From TrEMBL:
Cofactor(s) this protein cannot do without: heme
Protein name: Cytochrome P450
Keyword Heme recorded: yes
SUPFAM superfamilies: Cytochrome P450
Length: 574
């Protein structure tokens, strides 16, 4: 047991720093052992349920010890699902987790159970980073989320707005070219990650805020903050996974890191607010209505600004990595870009429409490196749902709950092997473990048997409040779905009608269903535009004596662990 526990604690040790002292470590060990014994005596929480296949688990930590390093979670899930199947159930501490890695199972979740699985789990990190405020990407399914998403799609970055932001892309690309030209003149390599993070961060800030952070010509460091936020959101957290062990997150330094980054985020938002409240030439405050309070505005920003920069810059970096690794593809893409743009000395949106091969390169990049490799959804939770219900629904809900309580013995005999004591306990303390909500035409209905997820061979129970990971990274690399799946072959998409909309579950880089990415047009246009500029103006090579490291690391996105370093040579200004 001890070596396993040590491995488990290693998750945290990898990310935080306070584990160097032996006393807290020993204390921790003692606490955990007593916890394990307590739970061993307490018995299994999932008795009587037909759960999907799962690797053997340990008390308390469940399958945590089998997950290896968290920055490879998508790959670990992939390997485990090779053995346990495309619908795999994991016990991540106290969190029931379903890992989905086949197109049939994506269909089962997204077509047959889309609404129940349209929520997002809340976490210590999201609560502390955003002070309990919810961003559109982390909001539970419901009216609040619907309103936020509407702001995104209809107002903030509508299709029309994306087109109108053409000048922003052009100006920012020109600045990027200037930076690269400087590096060319010095003969120094470029850190591609730094370059494209700054580009996408500036584009996102200008398109959403009207100008860059720091004022005209200012430098927006939001990409960096977003990167830190992404890492923390994905980090190991004792409190989220094991009941009663939340105090250990302070010990590991996790809570401290969250508070620090939350403050950085607040400062960033404060600066934006200050800038926009400074009267412009006509003495009118810009953009922000004076009557809104600072707190309202923080809330708004938290909701809007997480998720756009890192995803886009990571995609550009992976595309450039594959192009440098595959000189033939690079040559073909460059030839097309240079032919279409000609001697105009400026890449335009209209040019991009004619770059067929470039579009294939972007599609293939998002197949092998879907920036959001694990789409994380959660089945709705009793308590949260209850809060969102209107009075009538809540009455109905309580009525059904009471009925169920009264029928405890009957239920126990006819349907389950639970003892009345267990079921009472489940109703009073952890209702979500046993009881699910069914969505009927007349609204949500409490069910006794939780959700059934059907496979072609078998029916399984999925406890309510289960977190679902759809592993699109695994689906995108499945050799049964893709010929030479591990190779970068943009041509596979020519003559192939598959698009980004997620209707074909074989290819879902932007997710699918209700929670899919609302900004795929904005993202794809930004990625294509950046790559076209990089290819038009410069030739690219790996610095002599260096090799490209392809290790992936999972934060909010799957990025390159070691940033791509490349030497540019100017194609036009020699
Ligand atoms: C290449 C770039 C991008 C990729 C690959 C990507 C991919 C995704 C994926 C896979 C999801 C989750 C889907 C699900 O859970 O089913 C998502 C959600 C989201 N994305 Fe993107 N995204 C990108 C760029 C952007 C940009 C530029 C923005 C905004 C400026 C953005 C805003 C969002 C938001 C707000 C959500 C949450 C939607 C919701 O929960 O309702 N994304 N994205």
């Amino acid at each position: 047991m001890a070596p396993i526990l040590l491995q488990w604690l290693d998750f945290a040790k990898n990310q935080h720093t306070l584990f160097h002292h032996s006393l807290p470590f020993n204390l921790l060990f003692a606490f955990s052992i007593s916890f394990i014994i307590f739970r061993l005596v307490h018995g299994s929480l999932f008795k009587g349920l037909n759960l999907p296949p799962s690797p053997p688990k340990l008390p308390i930590i469940g399958n945590l010890h089998q997950l290896g390093k968290l920055h490879n979670l998508h790959q670990t899930f992939h390997h485990l699902s090779q053995k346990y199947g495309p619908l795999m159930f994991l016990h991540m501490g106290k969190v029931s987790t379903l890992v989905v890695s086949s197109i049939e199972m994506v269909g089962e979740i997204k077509i047959n159970h889309d609404i129940p699985f349209a929520s997002r789990p809340s976490s210590t990190a999201s609560n502390l980073l955003f002070h309990g405020r919810i961003s559109v990407g982390f909001a539970p399914y419901g009216e609040d989320w619907r309103q936020l998403r509407k702001i995104y799609v209809m107002e903030l970055l509508s299709k029309k707005k994306v087109e109108s932001f053409k000048y922003v892309r052009e100006e920012e690309a020109a600045l990027m070219i200037e930076k690269i030209s400087f590096a060319c003149s010095m003969g120094t390599p470029i850190d591609m990650k730094e370059l494209v993070t700054s580009l996408t961060s500036d584009i996102v800030c200008r398109c959403t805020l009207g100008r860059k952070h720091g004022g005209e010509g200012g430098n927006c460091n939001f990409g960096e903050i977003e990167n830190k936020v992404g890492k923390l959101l994905q980090a190991f957290c004792f409190g989220d996974l094991c009941p009663g062990l939340g105090w250990m997150d302070s010990l590991t330094g996790f809570i401290g890191s969250l508070k620090k980054v939350s403050k950085e985020l607040d400062n960033f938002f404060d600066q934006i607010i200050d800038e926009h409240l400074i009267p412009n030439k006509n003495n009118n405050p810009t953009y922000i209505n004076q009557s809104q309070t600072r707190a309202d505005l923080h809330k708004f920003f938290c909701r809007i600004f997480i998720g756009g920069t890192d995803t886009t810059s990571t995609t550009i970096e992976w595309a450039m990595t594959e192009l440098v690794k595959n000189p033939n593809v690079m040559k073909k893409a460059q030839a097309e870009v240079r032919k279409v743009v000609g001697k105009k000395n400026k890449v335009s949106d209209e040019d991009i429409h004619q770059m067929e091969y470039l579009k294939l390169v972007v599609k293939e990049t998002l197949r092998l490196y879907p920036a959001v490799a694990l789409n994380k959804e959660e089945e709705d939770e009793w308590g949260r749902r209850k809060k969102k219900m209107n009075g009538e629904e809540e009455d109905e809900f309580n009525h059904q709950k009471n009925n169920l309580k009264q029928n405890l013995n009957k239920l126990q005999e006819s349907d389950f092997n639970w003892t009345a004591k267990e079921l009472t306990c489940s109703l009073e303390e952890k209702p979500y473990l046993y009881l699910g909500l069914e969505y009927t035409e007349n609204g949500p209905k409490l069910t006794k048997s939780i959700l059934d997820v059907r496979t072609s061979k078998q029916r399984y129970h999925v406890p309510a409040m289960t977190t679902v990971f759809i592993n699109n990274w695994s689906i995108h690399r499945n050799p049964k779905l893709w010929d030479r799946a591990e190779e970068f072959i943009p041509e596979r998409f020519s003559e192939n009608p598959i698009d980004f909309l997620g209707k074909d579950f074989k290819y879902i880089p932007f997710g699918t269903g209700r929670r899919s990415c609302p900004e795929l047009v904005f993202a794809v246009v930004a990625v294509e535009f950046a790559i076209a500029n990089l290819l038009y103006w410069f030739d690219w090579e790996i610095p002599p004596g260096e090799e490209i490291d392809m290790t992936e690391t999972l934060g909010l996105t799957v990025s390159k662990e070691i940033p791509l370093r490349v030497v540019p040579t100017s194609h036009y200004f020699s």
